[in-house]
Specification:
- The chain has nine helices and 16 strands.
- With 320 residues, the protein is an alpha+beta fold.
- A hairpin with a 2-residue loop joins β12 and β13.
Length: 320
């Protein structure tokens, strides 16, 4: 049983790496930029539902000592090289998921809109290419309040990007980031994410903001469960239709080639590394056992596939 009170009493030192506007380092010119997929969405039938992965863009981050906090850089590079991947940088994509079920269109996480770096903010165009406009979204489900997951709820001018949608947020996540005393007690470098949460959620129409407890059913066939560690109240979601399951794991792992393959490694963005490691194993063990389709916000596009055992960890196998 997770002691939420203990977690909500934690320090916010881990949030210093998550300051809005500086969380994702842009590549140096010599490293180039990630290649965008030719088609920015991927459809998948799930029983009577449809799940659509929608690309919001990607960033290329130089790989330094700070990225994996508990493992020497040479071991990290060796792990990437063994998988035939570059060792000087990591590409980090951003992929929300749209669940279409009857007259409900449920978007899970939202990316950046026009608030992020220039290689992001592609959700709207790719969603429209898939046949849906922001006005068509009936529900938005937020896994946690880090900037790449919530910033796209409001455009830079303050307008609501999804004007008709109810926005569902985890109670413990909302309580943590909207706590003024906690923000004021944080080091200046750690306040960016607190400030961005206020930019997004302060004065959000009350009739559109829905707080849910982890474990709650969000909509018919969509249930939440606690996945604390990466952030104080992060949730993951199971989508079920006609006996078929899809699991959206949000940021249980930021880079599957590193933190799924070596789940005891810690990324710099994990706010409680010990809890995040335990959550990672618990969630991925369930994915392997269930043999369900899995999607992650930072998985390589199309970001849908299966999770399999691999040595002491797990391997993501994307859909062909």
């Amino acid at each position: 049983m997770i002691d939420r009170r203990r977690f909500l009493g934690t320090t916010v030192a881990g949030a210093s790496a998550l300051a809005f506007g500086s969380v994702w380092s842009q590549a140096t010119p010599s490293l180039g930029a990630p290649t965008a997929p030719a088609v920015g969405f991927r459809r998948m039938k799930l029983g009577a539902m449809e799940v659509i992965a929608i690309h919001d863009g990607a960033l290329r981050r130089p790989l330094g000592d700070e990225f994996v906090t508990n493992t020497p850089l040479d071991q990290v590079k060796a792990a990437l090289a063994a998988q035939g991947l570059p060792t000087e940088y990591v590409d980090i994509p951003f992929t929300p998921f749209l669940v279409v079920s009857g007259n409900r269109r449920v978007l899970m996480d939202v990316g950046f809109a026009d608030n992020g770096p220039p290689t992001t903010g592609r959700l709207r165009a790719n969603m429209e290419a898939a046949g849906y406009k922001p006005e068509d979204i009936t529900d938005v489900v937020i896994s946690h309040f880090h900037g790449d997951h919530i910033s796209g709820l409001r455009a830079k001018d303050g307008s609501l990007v999804f004007p008709r949608a109810k926005v569902h947020v985890p109670v413990p996540e909302h309580a943590f980031w909207l706590d003024d005393a906690r923000m004021n007690a944080a080091p200046a470098a750690a306040r960016g994410n607190f400030m961005n949460a206020r930019r997004v959620f302060n004065n959000y129409p009350a009739e559109q903001l829905v707080r849910f407890e982890p474990g709650a059913t969000i909509a018919p066939g969509i249930t939440s469960s606690a996945a604390f560690g990466h952030s104080p109240g992060m949730c993951v979601f199971q989508v079920t239709s006609e006996g078929q399951n899809f699991h959206y794991v949000a940021d249980v792992t930021n880079v599957p080639s590193l933190f799924a393959r070596s789940p005891d490694w810690s990324v710099t963005f994990d706010m409680d590394p010990n809890m995040a490691r335990a959550t990672r194993r618990r969630v991925f063990d369930a994915m392997v056992k269930d043999r369900a389709l899995t999607g992650g916000f930072h998985f390589p596009f199309p970001a849908i596939g299966t999770m399999e055992n691999a040595g002491n960890g797990y391997q993501f196998k994307p859909l062909a």
